[in-house]
Specification:
By secondary structure, the protein is mainly alpha-helical. The longest helix has 17 residues. The chain starts with a helix and ends with a helix. It is built from nine helices and four strands. The chain folds into three domains: about 55 residues, no CATH class; about 120 residues, no CATH class; about 50 residues.
Length: about 240
């Protein structure tokens, strides 16, 4: 998902350590002047840098015939899972056959720490917990980049049930002010009116009117959930 150059930078420390070991075992290195030593180091660095091989799914697997095969490769082979996710999203950006809806609830939790611990984050402000945006899926979902998709709509919502509400700044993520709305929860009466409207518009059908309160509880009174459900229904109806 990132440029090959940045992926190769991961190996910089290993390359430097290898160069130091090779120089330590080279009796002729000490006989070189400063310029020659520097040139020798650069040649070694370039040699190892050029020989870094980034994993490629085609080196081990045949060309996937569809996205389902690609997903199964990622599920069954953890070493290639991240790569498969990035390839999947790249395909979704370019395809035009199907309309895509990306719906993300609790969007703001992608910006906080996760429940997973790592020694790499000890003695940091994260207290050992891995920030959620370090993971592959949250990193991709945080990108406000629907303009890069040929046929896509993205809807996200914030949620404050697990932490105190604070001044959320969507503009820092590249989200324009005109793309944000502050919405309150639906009341039961509003929910009933909304469902009736969908029914009258033939968006939904065979709906059990006696289960209105049950479905109202399932949505947690969230307009976001209702909007997403309505959008999906409209897509299905349109197709």
């Amino acid at each position: 998902g990132t440029h090959l150059f940045y992926n190769k930078k991961i190996y910089n420390d290993i390359i430097k350590k290898t160069i130091e070991e090779e120089i330590a075992n080279d009796n002729n290195y000490s006989k070189l002047n400063d310029i020659e030593q520097n040139m020798y180091r650069q040649k070694l660095y370039k040699f190892y840098q050029d020989n870094i091989k980034i994993p490629n799914i085609l080196d081990k697997f045949p060309m996937p015939q569809n996205l389902v095969e690609l997903i199964n490769i990622g599920i069954n082979n953890s070493a290639y899972s991240n790569l498969c996710v990035y390839i999947l999203f790249e395909h979704l950006k370019k395809q035009t056959q199907f309309p895509i809806l990306i719906a993300v609830d609790q969007f703001n939790y992608n910006l906080s720490v996760s429940e997973y611990l790592s020694i790499n984050f000890e003695n940091t402000k994260y207290n050992g917990y891995i920030p959620t945006y370090y993971f592959t899926i949250p990193k991709l979902l945080l990108q406000w980049n629907t303009s890069k998709y040929k046929r896509c709509v993205k809807i996200v919502s914030t949620c404050w049930d697990r932490e105190n509400r604070r001044n959320f700044r969507p503009d820092l993520l590249g989200i324009n002010k005109k793309e944000t709305k502050t919405l309150r929860n639906f009341t039961l009466i509003e929910f009933k009116n909304y469902v009736s409207h969908l029914f009258n518009q033939n968006v939904i059908y065979n709906f059990d009117i006696n289960k209105l309160e049950y479905f109202y509880m399932l949505t947690a009174h969230s307009l976001f959930v209702l909007t997403v459900l309505s959008f999906i229904c409209n897509l299905v109806f349109f197709i």
